[in-house]
Each structure stands twice: as C-alpha cells, then as structure tokens.
Amino acid sequence: MTAPILRRLSDLRALHSDWRREGARIGLVPTMGALHDGHLSLVTAAKATCDRVIVTIFVNPRQFNSLEDLAKYPRTEHEDAEKLAPYGVDAIYVPDPDQIYPDGYATNVSVSGLTDVLEGEFRPGHFDGVATVVAKLFLQSGADQAFFGEKDYQQLMVVTRMARDLDIPITVQGCATIREPSGLAMSSRNMRLSPEALGRAAELYPVLRELADQLQAGADFDESTTLARTALANAGFGEVEYLDLRCAETLAPLSHPDRPARLLVAVWLDGIRLIDNITVDQLSN
Ligand code: PAF
Questions:
Q1: Is residue 182 included in any domain, yes or no?
Q2: Owning domain of residue 268
Q3: Which of 32, 36, 72, 188 minimizes the number of CB atoms within 10 Å of its CB?
Q4: What is the CATH number of the domain that holds 252?
Q5: What b-and-e string marks burial along 262-282, b requiring 16 or more CB atoms within 10 Å of the CB?
Q6: What is the whole-number distance in angstroms between the Cα of residue 31 and the centre of ligand 1?
Q7: How many domains is the chain partitioned into structurally?
Q8: 257 to each of 117, 150, 253, how far by Cα in Å?
Q9: Which of 54, 56, 132, 138 is nearest to 94 (CA)?
Q10: pLDDT for 75-121, tens place per residue?
Q11: What is the Cα–Cα distance from 165 to 242, expressed in whole angstroms?
C-alpha cells in the first residue's frame, strides 16, 4: 500500500504525536528522491529496528554548488512512492519548500573541521546545506534513529557529529554502500551517465579495491596512488579531485592504514562527478 504523502510540518507533527502515544520507535530515512536500491536498503534497515518509518524526499537547494546541478537533479516523486509501496513505510514527508525554509529563514548549521577537507574543499558550503537541512529533518520528525548510507561517508560523519554537538536525541546509523553487480556504488547521479559512460564507471571500484589491497599490504602511498590515478585515466575518467587515505573517524590524512582507515575518491566522468569510498583494514604491526 502506498504510504501517505505529507507536505506540511503540522501533518507530520500530528502523526508523530499519535505514534509517540503508542510508544512507537520512529525511524527516519532522509533522501532527495530518485530512489534506488541503496535508499531502499536504508528503508529495510529502518523497518528492521523501528516501529514506524518516515522517508523524506526534499531536493535541498542549499547543498548544491550550482543552479545547473540543482535544476538537473532528477525529480521522480511518483516513481519513488511506487518503489516505497512494498516496504510498508508509514509516511513519506515531501515538505513544501516553505516548511523547511520559511520566509526570512536565517539559520545555518555549520560543522567545522570535518567539513574542511575532501568534499568540503571542492564543494564549498555543501555541508552547511546538508547539516542545516538534516538538523531540521531530525527536529521536525522527532525520530529516534536515522539511516544514512556509507556511500556518502563524509556526510555520515558530519551528520553524526552535528546531532551529537547539538544534543539532538537521535541515533545516526550508517549502512553499507549498495553496489551494482559491476561494483559501481549506487547513486542517483548514475542515472545521468550514458550507457557507454556507465560501462566505464564500473572501472572505479576495481581500481579502488586494488589500491586498498596494496595499502593493506604495506605499499608506498604515493607510488600506489599514482598507479591508481593512471589506471583511472586509462579507463577514460577525467579529473580526479581527490584520492585519499583518511582516518575513518577524524578524516585526518594518512599515508599508511595504521588505524581504522577509509580510502575516498571523487572523480569526473562525462561531466558527472562520482564519489566512492571503501574501508581499508588496519596494517598489523
Ligand atoms: O544524501 C542525501 O540524499 C542528502 O544529502 C540528504 C542527507 C537527504 C540531505 O539533503
């Protein structure tokens, strides 16, 4: 059955009060729509641990770096509601823009440090937009638990820190990246790749995997990343914005995985910016 679509905060609050009276544990899956199996895996995780699940769909203008990118972002509300139907979610919150940013809205949530690197370096202001809208969705929904994919690893770190710093009583749960059979991480942006570019995009994961294996085996960071960058160029990728090994907790740069680490990449392909990341096992001493 298709879940009710709510567009006003007052409707969400009314539902929330009923659920609280029932003593329900409320789960939240924030999205910008264009749902794929990665989002649906978050819904499955939410259904497994929560009594009531809200999926939000809001294309947040404040986290885009260009008006063109915002305009091109796929908007597929009808298809999204159909995809959610078999999952038995309890509400789909598709707030009208004024429910998030009413006239005169003046508050910005900014998480320092974690947002200065990687995506933050190439997408100035992006994480302020994310932290602001996610803080609002956390507070508006009053959810107990929120589900985010590890595909956007830095985002997961940022929203976790934001909730902790602002004492928002919600548990942020990271969920494994869902990949196509080729290994390509699922993303709404993949829809914008031509079939030919999709084929090339499948080369990203094997290159990342190979580099992670080398680093885990103690290889020199500069030499191995140079080889990985060459492999990406040979596979037809464009500019590599970053290909970095980082501490999994603080995102500080590492040259060896001497603590839990993450390998993260942002690369252009046919005018589309792809990001991905994988865990790198700690070197044994
Ligand atoms: O990951 C996304 O889809 C968005 O950044 C989020 C978390 C829904 C905030 O707009």
A1: no
A2: 188-276
A3: 72
A4: 3.30.1300.10
A5: bbbbbbebbebbbbbbbbbee
A6: 5
A7: 2
A8: 18, 19, 10
A9: 56
A10: 999 999 999 999 999 999 999 999 999 999 999 999 999 999 999 99
A11: 28
Structure tokens at 95: 């707030």
Claim to verify: residue 88 and residue 153 sit in the same structural domain: yes
Same-domain check for residues 193 and 129: no
Quick check: is 285 in a domain? Answer: no
Interatomic CA distance for residues 170 and 192, integer angstroms:
34
Q: Among the options 16, 39, 126, 256, which is catalytic?
A: 39
Is there a contact between 157 and 184 (Cβ–Cβ < 8 Å)? no
With respect to residue 248, please indicate whether it lies within any of the assigned structural domains: yes
| 231 CA → ligand 1 middle, Å | 31
CA 135 from chain center: how many Å?
Answer: 15
Report pLDDT digits (tens) over 126-146: 999 999 999 999 999 999 999
101 and 157 together in one domain: yes
Pair (211, 271) in one structural domain:
yes
Ligand 1 pocket, mutate which of 36, 63, 162 (most atoms under 8 A from CB)? 63
pTM as predicted: 0.97
Average pLDDT, the chain: 97
